[in-house]
Amino acid sequence: MPRKRKAKDKQIEIAGFVGVGLDGDDGHKRITTGEKFIVAGGSEKTHEQMTEVLIEVTESLDRRGNVVRCKDELIALFHDAYAKRVR
């Protein structure tokens, strides 16, 4: 008989991310896309930081097979990527 999945065995598959920067007031329209993310708007610095963080997070997810066990695990990936990239 197949084993029933317990609630704690549940995994969340990540489809992708959208980053939106709201501090861009220099008239530039910035859009960057990756395989699993899109970043739109923001100042030059904000846009670059969001892009770097999303690249790091999607690479981490690729190594994990694109799944996390819970939202806290995903938040930790973002926190780690932010801490590495943003000073």
Describe the structure.
The chain is α+β, with helices and mostly antiparallel strands. It has one domain (11-85). It has helices spanning 44-63, 71-85, and strands at residues 12-13, 17-21, 31-33, 37-41, 67-68. The chain has a three-stranded mixed β-sheet with strand order 2-4-3, covered by helices on one side. It has a two-stranded antiparallel sheet with strand order 1-5. Helix 1 (44-63) packs across helix 2 (71-85). It is elongated and about 45 Å long. It starts with 11 loop residues before the first strand and ends with a helix. The relative contact order is 0.19. The model has no long low-confidence stretch (mean pLDDT 90).
The total of beta strands comes to: 5
Spatial strand order of the main sheet: 2-4-3
Biggest β-sheet strands, sense, barrel: 3 strands, mixed
The end-to-end span amounts to: 53 Å
- What is the overall silhouette? elongated
What fraction strand? 15-25%
